Amino acid sequence: MALQRDKIIVVDIEATCWNVEPPPDGQLNEIIEIGMCMYDVENDDITDKRSIFVKPVASVVSEFCTQLTTITQKQVDEHGIDFAEACDILVNEYNTRKILWTSWGGYDHKMFRKQCRRMGVSYPFGDKHMNLKKAFADYHHGNRMGMTRALNKAELELVGTHHRGDDDAWNIARLMQYLIQEYDMDFIKRYW
Question: Which residues partner with 13 through β-bridges?
């Protein structure tokens, strides 16, 4: 299926995490926040910043996770929705199966695939995922770097709270906008 080319959805997830590997007994990494925004290709504009909290079912939000993300167990208990419902929002409100989606690195893509399989939920995106971390590295001598370092390279200031899905999605969209303004749309065309 051909993708629509007028918008790109930028996604950043936060997941349960611990300061030890592997996770403690009985715990699994799972998505607790889906942050997103839309990049309007025609108008070179970033819009629709949103955060969706997801209730974990196979883990709890650790103190380490709260320190890293600011997300608490209470927040996901009170404001979180089921993962399947969150995926339905992506499909029904953002048309995610028919537009290109991007994230910083492959983690978000891998976590969505893994959690969808584990929970028996239909994958909410189309077949095309753009790893913006790799695309950014392609234009910066092959050096892959974290989002904050990339923002520094692009002379952009971090906006919001790092490791919050909606703020990170917004900053990732700004990095994509920077690449488009500096190098045009060529790096995106291979995904359409």
Answer: 34
Which positions ≥6 away from 120 have C-beta within 8 Å?
A: none
CA dist., res. 133 & res. 168, Å (int):
13
Helix axes 83-94, 107-119, angle to 10 degrees: 120
Number of neighbours of residue 163 by Cβ within 10 angstroms? 17
User: Of 11, 14, 13, whose CA–CA distance to 38 is shortest?
Assistant: 11
pLDDT in tens, 7-42: 999 999 999 999 998 899 999 999 999 999 999 999
pTM over 0.70: yes
**CA–CA gap between residue 11 and residue 50 (Å, rounded):** 10
